[in-house]
């Protein structure tokens, strides 16, 4: 892993507050979701600002002439925490908030897919929520063997929207996708590699070294060949766009339902949820 340098073009990212940006030699841009400074749990939780910034950063990377590869990681106890419960509650109570976050959730997925620069993710500890969207949609996803990947939507009482429907069946097959998404079952990094959900699983002490090694190889390769290969491969994801749009709409429909409120309350009280409602169809 190289030491970050005082390289040009950082004014391109001056407005970001929850993401720490560091340039490395050769065109590698490191993105750190900063949970240590903002969250007592030591996990980067997607509050209103981080959710917006995670959606927007990929457009800026796409137009950044100094960046060839982006590497996203967390710090502290894990890669990323789940959604901020105060934001979730605000979405349940406000049509305006719900509409804004829906747009950001949509943009996060499509902006990662459409970013011309290759993206590497380095996941350790818990990997949940909006951070996990970028982690699994990254072109090369690397996790520690002990990482815990969790799509927590059904535990919260809403459909698995975000990235799940667009990428999980393609990566690990429909049977495994349904098992983990419907049951909200955690997956270790080692198991995620076995079923094809992530590109690589490594020992904890090897994560950053391996991630930066991959990023440097991408940065040193033919940029037109790599970017055009990414573009062509991501047409598989673009074909699944209507499936993703439907899943996201169904997720956000659930934010106005009784199960969401029970899900939030049970998380605040650290207990199992007691979902009594039935689907209205």
What does this protein structure show overall?
It contains 13 helices and nine strands. The chain is an alpha/beta fold and 281 residues long. It has a single domain, classed as 2-enoyl-CoA Hydratase, Chain A, domain 1 (Alpha-Beta Complex). A six-stranded mixed sheet has the order 1-2-3-4-6-9, sandwiched between helices. A three-stranded mixed sheet has the order 5-7-8. Strand 1 and strand 2 form a beta hairpin. Helix 1 (48-62) packs parallel to helix 3 (95-114), helix 2 (85-93) packs across helix 3 and helix 3 runs antiparallel to helix 12 (241-254). It starts with 18 loop residues before the first strand and ends in a 13-residue tail after the last helix.
Mean pLDDT: 92
And the CATH topology?
A: 2-enoyl-CoA Hydratase, Chain A, domain 1
Number of discrete helical segments = 13
Assembly context of the chains: single chain
Structural class: alpha/beta
* CATH architecture classification: Alpha-Beta Complex
Largest sheet: 6 strands, mixed
Name of the CATH class: Alpha Beta
Number of β-strand runs: 9
- Globally, the shape reads globular
Q: How big is the Rg?
A: 18 Å
Report helical residue fraction: 40-55%
CATH superfamily: 2-enoyl-CoA Hydratase, Chain A, domain 1
Order of helices and strands: EEHEHHEEHEEHHHEHEHHHHH
């Amino acid at each position: 892993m190289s030491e970050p340098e005082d390289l040009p073009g950082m004014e391109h990212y001056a407005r970001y507050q929850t993401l720490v940006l560091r340039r490395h030699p050769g065109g590698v841009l490191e993105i750190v979701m900063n949970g240590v400074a903002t969250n007592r749990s030591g996990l980067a939780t997607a509050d209103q600002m981080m959710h917006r910034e995670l959606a927007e950063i990929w457009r800026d990377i796409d137009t950044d002439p100094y960046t060839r590869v982006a590497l996203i990681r967390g710090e502290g106890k894990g890669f990323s925490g789940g959604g901020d419960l105060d934001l979730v509650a605000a979405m349940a109570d406000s049509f305006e908030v719900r509409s804004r976050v829906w747009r950001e959730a949509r943009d996060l997925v499509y902006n990662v897919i459409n970013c011309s620069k290759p993206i590497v993710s380095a996941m350790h500890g818990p990997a949940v929520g909006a951070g996990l969207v970028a982690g699994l949609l990254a072109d090369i996803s690397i996790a520690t063997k002990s990482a815990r990947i969790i799509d927590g939507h059904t535990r919260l009482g809403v459909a698995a929207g975000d990235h799940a429907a667009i990428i999980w069946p393609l990566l690990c097959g429909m049977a495994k996708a349904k098992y983990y998404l419907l049951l909200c079952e955690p997956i270790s990094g080692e198991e995620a590699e076995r079923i094809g959900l992530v590109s690589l699983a490594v020992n904890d002490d090897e994560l950053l070294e391996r991630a930066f090694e991959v990023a440097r190889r991408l940065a040193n390769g033919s940029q037109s060949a790599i970017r055009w290969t990414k573009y062509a491969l991501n047409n598989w994801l673009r074909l699944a766009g209507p499936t993703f749009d439907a899943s996201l709409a169904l997720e956000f429909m659930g934010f106005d339902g009784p199960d969401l409120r029970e899900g939030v309350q049970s998380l605040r009280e650290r207990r199992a949820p007691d979902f009594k409602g039935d689907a209205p169809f």
